[in-house]
Design goal:
single chain, 4 helices
């Protein structure tokens, strides 16, 4: 179940990153998908999500920051590459999402 969640999120993020229609709006979408994946991995491990919005935001904060840090790092990698086409962006998004998910899965 957890591996399937990571793989599906990685493929979806790769598709988002390869899309030229999104332009510069990719980082927020990829970050939200990764944060959601991390929250769901926590639920799969038995963690419970609070029902109050304020407590849920505090719970999701570290996951969101981890996903944002991964995204900023991936963006820096892509910007240093000699080619930045959709295949490169998709590959980096897939790899970054997969690595983040597997790191959380093995935690």
């Amino acid at each position: 179940l957890c591996r399937r969640l990571v793989t599906r999120t990685a493929f979806a993020n790769a598709a988002f990153a390869a899309s030229s229609r999104l332009g510069h709006a990719q980082l927020p979408l990829l970050t939200l998908a990764q944060a959601r994946m991390l929250l769901l991995l926590g639920v799969a491990r038995g963690e419970t999500l609070p029902r109050e919005p304020e407590k849920l935001a505090r719970t999701a904060g570290p996951y969101f920051l981890a996903a944002l840090g991964t995204g900023i790092g991936a963006r820096a990698i892509v910007r240093r590459l000699p080619r930045r086409g959709p295949i490169v962006r998709a590959t980096v998004a897939y790899g970054g999402t997969g690595a983040l998910g597997m790191a959380a899965f093995r935690r």
